[in-house]
Structure formats: C-alpha cells, structure tokens
Amino acid sequence: MIMKKIAFLVCLLSFTFGFAQNQALFNKATELYNDGQYSEAIDNYQQILNSGQHSASLYFNLGNCYYKLNAIGPSIYYYEKALLLSPNNKEIENNLRFAQNMRLDAIDEIPKTELSRVYDSVVGMFSSDQWAYLAVVLVFLFVLAYMAYYFLRPANQKRAAFISSMLSLTLCVICVLLAYLNDQQDKNDDPAIVFAKEVNVNAEPNTNSSTVFTIHEGTKVNVLDELDEWRRVRIADGQTGWLLEDNIKSLKDF
To answer: Which residue range forms the structural domain that includes residue 209?
Structure first.
C-alpha cells in the first residue's frame, strides 16, 4: 500500500515537473517569436511536442513561426492541425487563409449540394463518441418512461409515458445511426499536406506510370488508399492519383 502511494506521488511529481518545464519552454518560445527569432522558437515548440503535449495554441504558434519563415507546407500543416483541435476558430482560419495564398496551386473544390451540406452539418454536429453517449442517455430515459407507463394508473399519464418511451427509443436509434455515420466519415477522412516543392501524381503506384497531374507544396489532399510506400490521394476538385508517401504528411498523426 505504501509502495503504491509512493509510486503515485512520483508520477504526480513527474507530471507536475513536466508541465512546468513545457510551460517554461512555451513562454521562452513566445519570447523568441516576438524577438523575430523564429527558428529558435520552433526548436522550443518542437521540444514540447516531443514530450507528448499537443494543443491548438501550440500548433497555431508553430504555424505562425513557419509562416514568418515563408515555409508554405509546414505553416499550412500546423494551422490545419490547430483547426482539428479547435474547429471554427476564426483566428486560426484567418491565418490559414493567408498561408494558403502563398500556394502555387489554386484548386476549385467540387460544389456541394444543399442536401450534402445539411447531411454533413447534422452528422458532424457531435463526434461519434458524443452521439454514442447521447444514445446511452436516451436508453436510460426510455427505461424510465417505460417503467412509468407500467406503474402509472391514469390513462392520460400512461399515454404520455408510452409516447415518451417510444420517442426516446426512436431518438436513441437515430443517435446510434449518426454515431456510425460519423465514425465512417472520420475513417474516410484522412487529410494530408504536401511538403515536397513539386510532386507528380501518377495514374498507378509506380514510377513508370503516366502523370495525371502535378501539385505543389502546401496543397491539401485526402488519402484514399495505400500500397507499400505509395498513397492514393484525391484533391479538392475530385482528381485522384498515386504519389510516394514521403511527399506528404498526415494531419491526424497526433
């Protein structure tokens, strides 16, 4: 028992020390950034990342540093990662647009139908876990309403309890479906940023196949498939092709 307490205290002290150390690195990096020493600031931010700590503010500051150094790929990459942790953050979105303006590629996105936008809005309202938690709550409400229906005597109260139980059950099924759809959507969404200055995207996963199109540093792609060191990607206008894994960097590699 004493050994467990000692081990717990050691873990707590290590966590506290690590947090304090990372905070000191973050503050130092911010000072370096304000002094225009962007490369040195990046080194400090990277040390925090190497310790396993991730945050939207950390990625945002890294994006700012690389933007100041005119590093298109890394700046867009870190702004996009910051947005994954802090969706709809206006400051991040604004800086990302500035960085995207430095790209050579201007790719028009496939326009979405109104139905598609509504679908994405509903499914993406919560994460798959949040939809699942909501389904559990609705199951609990269904059980309570059903028990009320069983024990209540007045007809109007029994009717209200029955309707409530059926409504809770129906909403529960809908939440389970939305959790599944959100999970599938998340699995199919594997964004990455091009880090190579220029890369040819081939029709097949080999160097001898024909080039379908060429993209440049900072372009965002979605990884659809993989074969050895090759990745099949799709760009915003719907074109697809194969490129070598070394040319891109996944946004979800937290």
So the answer is: 191-250
